[in-house]
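Action item from last week, closing it out:
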Amino acid sequence: MKKLLIFFSSRKSWTLPYLLFSVVFVIIPLLLIVVYAFTDENGRMSLVNFSKFMAHPEAINTFVYSIGVAVITTLGCILLGYPAAWILSRSNMGYSKTLIMLFILPMWVNILIRTLATVALFDFLRLPLGEGALIFGMIYNFIPFMIYPIYNTLQKMDKSYIEAAQDLGANQFQVFWKVVFPLSLPGISSGVMMVFMPTISTFAIAELLTMNNIKLFGTTIQENINNSLWNYGAALSLIMLFLIAATSLFSTDGKDDSNQGGGVW
């Protein structure tokens, strides 16, 4: 009893709820995905699910198309989000915080409701639903996740680097390209992670904005799970997880390089 009291009074015991949560809702589901992915319908160890994926051009095309949509969405969020973050970082504190709240405010609304509102907007403007609506909806839903990390990085940037570059005769473009942009790479990397990963796995946005005429990889996984094809659906999920893990490793390597080099070319 005394040992229990000592354990629960220590700081280590504070991590117990988080550990239990991670085990039940993260580790065990991931282990189940791996087990189902590498077993057949009879429970025997097999690679038949991955062979099935490689033998179906439709599934591979959907996978490649989903990556393309995720890349276009991420690039669109960078092109639109970086100037917004740059302008906000150069504004006065009260004004910039208000604008940041306006960007974050839509995140308080459920993503399905925002997507349905986008569908209603396209119907009101008499614009067709399809690939264009899909890209628009993706960027609209995920651009705040790109703006805020970049803004946070630019806001914390040491302004003495800019002053030093200006003292050395650099013009505005050189200051931005040689100093500001390299220092903001960690924010861009975080934004890419926060946009690319959910984009490649989403399915509700594609179903609503294309009237289910365009399938993403997340839709394929959902259909297999709904049809009780647990093994094949788990294999597809594992393939997607490998892609997300590779993206995470690439992003982490980029952050380490930027930190070691000071972030300035």
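Closing note: The radius of gyration is 23 Å.
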